[in-house]
Design a protein that fits this description.
single chain; alpha+beta; 6-stranded antiparallel sheet; about 675 residues
Length: about 675
């Protein structure tokens, strides 16, 4: 309502102002609260949800004075804040901020409050603050007294069941409305009553129900406090002890360890239909304290079990170390040996007893320390392991130079704390000697292949030149010309095989396949190579297609070698009378070469190793057909493509035939 002031101006009543500007004040207060508590805005959700009701109640208090104030909303606010862990100063600051928001909104209002209205507003706010602070302090004092008595109940270290009964007795003595209380623990998917006091305690102890059964099951399932108004008649109550005549209020809370359910606690009353908020807050506090004790007891039990398990593990570790054929030792941060095995003693020539408690510097040879000390320092400084480091030393009883392989790894706790180092030591002298023999044999084989491939080219070139001259003679008849063609084909095939052998030797001897890149047109080089292949295979149709931009930087001789190997492979294994198709297609970053033929598909067991050298499959089911043997050709193709930064792919089905696809990047990949 507005009133006329002495000068004819219209003025406001404080209660009307609060009702009219409730939304604006709420928005101002919410914004201020978020700014003040940006990291804990979720703690103020209750007050934000109930602020409209609080403002209406404040308006009622201004209009009707103390008798219109009521208590429920202010007390609920105080108890909610206490339950959330607020202190008294934080609660007072909320109302101080509300007062500031109301006064600031009044300052922006063109109309003024009627005389005395500002004073009534201030008095109403003071009453609300006083009421909230009083309720908050009384409830906290009550809880502190109960917690003190609960602490005394734990001094003699009682068993879990005894302690739970004592905590429930503290509840009975602190809340007069409570006539029965119990705690049910989750055991094997059932809630079992482990402690009970008050009415029906004898019947309740030891009884159980399904963890999702009845009212207690609802508390466990929803994992939040729930209340009932009539326990003795409500069908959801299935625990027999709660069916005692006259029980009304029933309140249950879950016992939680973070997200894990430990059990359920309840309290019941004959006199009340619903428990007052101070009683439920006290019960939740006692339940939390009981949960904390249960967790602590469980942790202590786990600690005892962990010690037993640690002793068992150490015994197993000692047995394992004794049986291991390689030297193993564990050292602390000072590099003192904590554990060592007999194999380490045999390798180093130092008995296990002489190693324990001593550092590496105390029993290792100087020449060995020069090798091992940098490795140990690296592990200690970086926390990274050193694996399979080989060195030569004269450790051991014989004092003869031998080759050893040592590894160091950090030993850490689950949290990452460094506890020390683990060491493994292996004598690999015989292994290295055998490896050297094998390497010499491999080197001889590869060098022999290279020499044979090189020396065979001279007589082969002579055969090829002679066959070319014979092919030009005019006096030969058809049989003689066919014989000359066979010589030329065999010579060309043998030439490709020798080239493959030479390239294979180069790749295996470490030099790699050499390439000489130059600017070229892949389509033109492939077309010229196919024309030569067509002369050597006049009985087969070789089809060529080119699309798009096919320029790039490649080795033309190697491109010709790749195409020759792929086309020769397609002719050998393709269906006779069906063309072998070669396609060159320009893509944005590469040029794609495809060679396709129809015929028997490549067997699945061969696909996984299609580009391996010296492979061959078993004979086909039809003896009349040739045995598929791809030799070195496809291996060389993959190596040449890899040197150019590309790759080779193959698809082979009975319906679509076999297609080899080579991807040629246009330019050299940057490194």
């Amino acid at each position: 309502m507005n009133t006329e002031g002495p000068d004819g101006d219209r003025t406001l009543r404080a209660a009307d102002f609060l009702r009219a500007h409730r939304q604006e004040i709420l928005a101002d207060w919410e914004q201020a609260m978020h700014a003040l508590h940006a990291d804990h805005s979720d703690r103020h959700s209750w007050l934000m949800d109930h602020m409209p009701e609080l403002l209406i109640a404040l308006a009622e208090t201004i209009e009707h004075g103390p008798e219109g104030m009521g208590t429920a909303l202010w007390d609920e606010h105080a108890l909610e804040r206490l339950d959330q862990g607020f202190d008294l100063g934080e609660v007072a600051s909320e109302y101080a901020l509300l007062r500031k928001c109301v006064l600031r909104r009044l300052e922006s209002e063109p109309r003024t409050l009627a005389p005395g209205e500002l004073e009534r507003l201030e008095e109403a706010l003071d009453r609300v603050v006083t009421r909230t602070m009083t309720c908050f302090s009384q409830a906290r004092q009550r809880i502190l007294q109960a917690l003190d008595r609960m602490s005394q109940a734990t001094l003699d270290g009682p068993s879990v069941d005894t302690l739970l009964s004592r905590l429930l007795s503290v509840l009975m003595e602190s809340a007069l409305a409570v006539d029965a209380a119990a705690m049910l623990m989750l055991e094997d998917e059932r809630l079992v009553v482990r402690a009970a006091v008050g009415l029906g305690a004898d019947k309740a102890l030891g009884s159980s129900l399904g963890w999702d059964e009845g009212f207690m099951g609802q508390v466990a399932t929803h994992r939040k406090p729930l209340a009932l108004r009539s326990a003795s008649t409500d069908p959801r109550v299935v625990l027999r002890a709660l069916k005692a005549p006259g029980l009304r209020a029933l309140y249950g809370v879950p016992l939680m360890e973070e997200d894990r359910l430990l059990g359920v606690a309840y309290m019941a009353s004959r006199t009340a239909f619903l428990f007052a908020e101070p009683d439920t807050l006290l019960f939740r506090t006692i339940a939390q304290r009981a949960t904390a004790y249960l967790v602590q007891a469980r942790l202590q039990a786990r600690e005892r079990a962990a010690r037993v398990e640690a002793q068992r593990s150490l015994a197993q570790l000692d047995a394992l170390l004794a049986a291991m054929p390689l030297g193993v030792a564990f050292m602390d941060l000072d590099l003192r040996v904590l554990r060592s095995n007999q194999a380490m003693a045999d390798i180093t020539g130092v008995p296990v007893e002489a190693q324990l408690g001593r550092t590496l510097h105390e029993f290792a040879l100087k020449e060995t320390l020069q090798v091992l000390e940098p490795l140990v320092r690296h592990v200690m400084e970086t926390g990274e392991p050193v694996r399979a480091h080989e060195f030569t030393s004269s450790v051991g009883a014989t004092r003869k130079p031998r080759v050893y392989q040592v590894s160091y790894h950090p030993v850490k706790t689950p949290t990452g704390e460094l506890l020390g180092l683990g060491c493994t030591l292996v004598d690999i002298t015989e292994h290295k000697q055998t490896e050297a023999k094998l390497q010499r044999a491999v080197d001889f084989r590869e060098q022999l292949l290279a020499v044979l491939g090189h020396d065979l080219r001279n007589p082969l070139n002579a055969i090829g030149a002679s066959a070319f001259q014979l092919a030009r003679a005019q006096e030969w008849g058809p049989p003689e010309r066919r014989a000359v063609d066979r010589i030329r084909k065999a010579t060309a095939r043998m030439g490709r095989m020798i080239n493959d052998i030479l390239d294979f030797a180069r790749s295996r001897l470490g030099g790699g396949i050499p390439v000489s890149r130059q600017r070229m047109n892949l389509a033109e080089v492939c077309q010229a190579a196919l024309e030569e292949l067509q002369v050597s295979h006049p009985e087969r149709q070789l089809v060529f297609e080119a699309h798009g931009d096919t320029w790039g930087e490649w080795d033309p001789d190697r491109v010709t070698q790749v195409l020759g190997n792929l086309v020769a492979n397609a002719i050998q294994h393709g269906q006779e009378g069906v063309p072998v198709r070669t396609t060159v297609r320009g893509e944005p970053a590469e040029v794609v070469l495809e060679v396709h033929n129809l015929g028997e598909p490549i067997p699945p067991e061969l696909m996984a190793r299609i580009f391996d050298p010296f492979k061959a499959t078993s004979a086909p089911k039809d003896p009349a057909k040739k045995t598929r043997s791809l030799g070195l050709g496809l291996y060389i193709v993959s190596q040449i493509a890899g040197v150019h930064g590309g790759r080779v792919e193959v698809r082979s089905t009975a319906r679509e035939g076999t297609t080899f696809t080579v991807h040629w990047p246009r330019t050299r990949a940057s490194r």
